[in-house]
Design goal:
The complex is a heterotrimer. Chain A is an all-alpha fold. Chain A is built from eight helices and no strands. Helices cover 83% and strands 0% of the residues of chain B. Chain B contains nine helices and no strands. Chain B is flat and about 70 Å long. The longest helix of chain C has 16 residues. Classes of the chains: A mainly alpha, B mainly alpha, C alpha/beta. Chains in contact: A-B, B-C. Chains A and B meet through helix 3, helix 4, helix 6 and helix 8 of A and helix 3, helix 6, helix 7, helix 8 and helix 9 of B.
Chain lengths: 218, 234, 252
């Protein structure tokens, strides 16, 4: 069987895996946003306790490999009686991991918003919470879009690690196929091509999103 | 208590795994550094055809394909092409080349911030291109690269854990063995592994910060650049 | 017979469709200072860059003494090491101390032993009045001091000719004098110089000849006295009038 025939035959299964890959990515980035914003807020506006806890969280997550985090969740947690399915372990692991990075993006964005903006808000009689809600957050979201693009592509690629805890994404499918036809290298060439296409398409989409939401002067 | 004792017993193998992890990190970074500088110089000063046909495709490919896939391609590719290399070697090639693609970007950015004026001044003294690069461009580019490079160090160190997938007995795999051997507490073992990674990242970053301080020169806005680089994931 | 240091013949340079130099010819004798003036965008800087081939011209020939610079067989690095260049933005090597900035060319290009190179560098730094700053980094100096270092850097190579590309136009007004003073002293010592500048006071004081360039051609050239008072071309008169009003006419 030629490489092209092989590629054609295994494509449906691999694409089914790719769908799981995309699911993992989207869910993980969503968890990352939801968790990342409060962490960033705690680091910028929080009291000493909140600041210490959030900083500790960010440093620990960023200072350890995602793979180790996945192992702790999937192989480790059963030691204390918590059993997670591979898919759930993967989205929790990737989500928490992404939250730490996104918290840093948010923090950077918030800190790059000029002080005058807040002063102007206070001068209108806004309270701190109102100023954050109406002035800081909207600008932060605009500023963070480029980092988000990177993060999304990063997660797409690193979701391949979920294979190591048997989540049924594209790599697992590839391994399964290879264990039957013994043409591992060629199977992974196809996998690489699929990732290439995914990354390329995603970057194109994100580029146009970035352009669309750009604000003059921000 | 019994669990802690098991960990204590497992410590020698965890430490030997740590050594392999450090070794891998050094090889990945070294290969990435040497090749990365060449690629960056090629992108800034090289002929256009070289950039379009070799350097840019290389960088794009190695940055777009996930590390784990690259690792498998090199590992299974070697037997496909009947080249006999160890899993360790396959890992060095895959991850070293990958790091080169990222480091090239770091160095290129640094070279471009230095700007053409410096090159022009060097050439006006009669230096040839190589001399200008060696005495004027690189010393500045390397200094400017330290903060981003610290980032790359952390990324590469953490990615050594992927070598687990092709059977290299690095830190994580040693952890796995301990869990299997002793039916021990996986949570504890992997947490200890994570802690070791964390310490390695921390020590490396301190070391690089020390280097940065040591080679600090008035007129380099390295501090603000560090702030920026913290925000980049890779 | 005066000894010709630089001869430029019929020089052309275009960037795409934009013709920047359209047949420039002039020569500079030993010990002469020529000041090139003209509106911005008329190719004065391009001309200087063409002389030491940092920007290769499209057409035309250049000689440094008897060596043809534009001959493809000529060793350009050798030529450049004997033509000093002083830039508008100084272009000092940011990562090196003042001493190392001056010394680098001597060690790397001329292969002079370090002790000897240090000696030469110190002498030149002394000449520009910066002997007390040798261990400072460029960012720690004022613009005027940086430009004096860059003059010392050029001098150290023992050049046959120094090209000055608007050496004072990036400086705060109060710092211009110290740089011009160094240049005036150089001229008095017989250094051969080509200076692109709008400092009319300097031009009057030291220029053997002023060259007025506009739109890529030399409109008129002559001794300062004649150029200022009896210029032939109305464009020259107009420009000199404007520039004198703008920059004043005194040397300091």
């Amino acid at each position: 069987m030629s490489f092209l025939e092989l590629a054609w035959n295994i494509l449906p299964k691999l694409l089914a895996g790719a769908v799981v890959t995309i699911e993992l990515t989207i869910i993980a980035i969503t968890i990352g946003i939801v968790l990342g914003i409060p962490v960033a807020m705690a680091r910028v506006y929080g009291n000493k306790l909140l600041y210490t806890i959030s900083t500790f969280f960010v440093e620990i997550i960023r200072g350890t490999p995602l793979l180790t985090q996945l192992f702790i969740l999937y192989f480790g947690l059963p030691s204390v009686g918590i059993m997670l399915s591979p898919f759930v372990a993967a989205i929790i692991g990737m989500g928490i991991n992404s939250a730490a990075y996104q918290a840093e993006y948010f923090r950077g964005a918030i800190q790059s918003i000029k002080k005058e903006q807040l002063i102007a808000a206070y001068s209108l009689g806004m309270k701190k919470v109102q100023a954050i809600r109406h002035i800081v957050l909207p600008q932060m979201f605009r500023l963070v879009i480029p980092s988000w693009s990177n993060e999304l592509i990063y997660l797409l690629k690193y979701s391949s690690m979920a294979y190591m805890i048997q989540a049924p994404e594209i790599m697992s499918q590839a391994r399964l196929i290879a264990s039957r036809n013994f043409r591992t290298f060629e199977v992974f060439i196809v996998v690489a091509l699929i990732y290439l296409v995914l990354v390329l398409v995603l970057s194109k989409i994100l580029d146009s999103v970035e352009r669309r939401y750009r604000i003059p002067g921000l | 208590m019994e669990q802690l004792y098991l960990i204590w017993q497992g410590m020698p193998s965890l430490l030997s795994g740590t050594l392999v992890t450090i070794e891998l990190t050094i090889y990945f970074l070294a290969l990435g550094f040497l090749l990365g500088i060449l690629l960056a110089l090629g992108r800034v000063y090289g002929p256009l055809y070289l950039q379009l046909l070799v350097i840019i495709p290389f960088e794009r490919l190695f940055r777009a394909i996930p590390a784990l896939v690259l690792l498998f391609l090199f590992y299974f590719g070697s037997s496909f092409f009947h080249i006999n290399i160890s899993a360790f070697m396959a890992a060095i090639l895959a991850m070293g080349l990958r790091s080169a693609a990222y480091q090239s970007e770091i160095f290129r950015g640094a070279i471009q911030t230095i700007g053409e004026d410096q090159m022009k001044a060097a050439r006006s003294l009669g230096m040839n291109t190589l001399q200008s690069i060696r005495y004027v461009i690189l010393p500045q580019a390397l200094r400017l690269s330290i903060p981003s490079w610290a980032n790359e160090y952390a990324v590469v160190l953490k990615d050594t854990s992927l070598a687990y997938a092709v059977g290299v007995t690095e830190l994580l795999r040693q952890g796995r063995y301990i869990v299997a051997r002793t039916f021990g507490n996986a949570l504890l073992v992997y947490t200890v592994c994570a802690l070791i990674y964390f310490i390695l990242v921390f020590i490396g970053n301190q070391l690089l910060r020390f280097l940065e301080e040591k080679y600090k020169i008035p007129g380099y806005e390295i501090k603000t650049r560090r702030e920026q680089s913290v925000l980049e994931r890779i | 017979m005066p000894h010709v240091i630089l001869k430029v013949e019929n020089l052309y340079k275009s960037y795409g469709k934009l013709a920047v130099l359209k047949g420039i010819s002039f020569q500079v004798n030993q010990g002469e200072t020529k000041v090139i003036i003209g509106p911005s965008g008329t190719g004065k800087s391009t001309l200087l860059n063409c002389i030491n081939q940092l920007t290769p011209p499209d057409k035309g020939r250049i000689w440094l003494e008897e060596i043809e610079v534009t001959n493809p067989a000529t060793d350009l690095n050798l030529i450049r090491s004997s033509i000093g260049m002083v830039f508008q933005h100084f272009n000092l090597f940011t990562h090196l101390t003042v001493l190392d900035n001056v010394r680098l060319g001597l060690v790397v290009v001329k292969k002079i032993p370090k002790d000897k190179a240090t000696e030469i560098s110190l002498e030149k730094l002394n000449q520009v009045g910066l002997a007390d700053k040798i261990n400072a980094y460029p960012a720690e100096l004022s613009g005027g001091q940086q430009q004096r270092v860059s003059i010392a850097r050029a001098l150290a190579m023992n050049p046959k000719l120094i090209l000055f590309d608007e050496p004072t136009s990036a400086l705060d007004p109060e710092l211009i004098g110290e740089v011009l003073n160094v240049m005036i002293k150089l001229a008095e010592r017989g250094m051969t110089m080509v200076v692109v500048s709008h400092e009319m006071g300097f031009a009057r004081a030291v220029a053997n000849e002023i060259i007025f360039m506009e739109n890529g051609v030399i409109v008129e050239e002559g001794k300062p006295d004649i150029m200022f008072h009896h210029a032939q071309n109305p464009r020259t008169r107009e420009f000199l009038h404007k520039i004198t009003e703008l920059y004043g006419g005194k040397a300091e």
